[in-house]
């Protein structure tokens, strides 16, 4: 079993190159193939006993909490170990968790209102107007850029009227955020593209979503909305700093908290 960061970087780079050079039809099998291969060699990336799981779940629950209720239908994309979806299931009517790597998920004693679906990474098998919330954390950056609009078109159809899309993804100006951040100045691993607020604002609007807000806060205080245009201005100013300096600041926790993208929009 491979166990060093450089070995992980080399494997991700090889598999990412395979994914980049595919058609959408080919990706219906390639997503699953490459992520299963990866997790078989690096199972601790998904199930790391040293990671602070409680912290990772707590801040997400705080972000989601204002939108959850007993009548809510919740869909998570890229659920990984499903710990968040299982937590959310205690607060809502129905949860469906989507994951592409069937080797990364082990669910015992799941509640009756929870369902895990292992899918091809491209198409979702859900009825139109069937969910109140679609949640995507650390997924957009893993999508082949040609699949972004395809995903969003499906999200739009699946959501009920006034349903919410909630997207969390790393910001490109403080990256790269995949394993390549330790070796290169741009993502070469599983992050196909890292975004800015400006880019996601345009993509979401063109996909029909409205009332887009950026969210800031902390797990102890909760999260609150701010104008997305404020963040677009901030990132425009920060982008004027030379890339070499920004790269040296990539591990700054304050900058990471400021720039991590959290966008919520409505159908």
Count of individual helical segments: 9
Low-confidence stretches: none
Q: What pattern of helices and strands is seen along the backbone?
A: HHHEHEEEHEHEEHHHE
Rg, nearest Å: 18 Å
Query: How many strands, what sense, and barrel or not for the largest sheet?
Result: 8 strands, mixed
CA-based shape: globular
In whole angstroms, the N-to-C terminal distance is 45 Å
The strand count comes to 8
Q: Beta fraction of the residues?
A: 15-25%
The chain-level structural class is alpha/beta
Averaged pLDDT = 92
Report the helical percentage: 25-40%
Side by side, the strands of the main sheet go 3-2-1-4-5-8-6-7
Structural description of this entry:
36% of the residues lie in helices and 21% in strands. The protein contains nine helices and eight strands. An eight-stranded mixed β-sheet has the order 3-2-1-4-5-8-6-7. Helix 4 links the parallel strand 1 and strand 2 (94-99). Helix 1 (5-20) runs antiparallel to helix 2 (24-41). The longest helix has 18 residues, at 24-41. It is globular.
List strands and helices in order, with pairings.
Blueprint lengths: L4 H16 L3 H18 L11 H12 L8 E5 L5 H6 L5 E6 L14 E5 L12 E7 L10 H11 E11 L27 H10 L3 E9 L3 E6 H11 L4 H6 L4 H7 L1 E6 L1
Parallel strand pairs: 1-2, 1-4, 2-3, 4-5
Antiparallel strand pairs: 5-8, 6-7, 6-8
What is the gist of this entry?
36% of the residues lie in helices and 21% in strands. By secondary structure, the chain is α/β, with parallel strands linked by helices.
List keywords for this structure.
single chain, 267 residues, alpha/beta, 9 helices
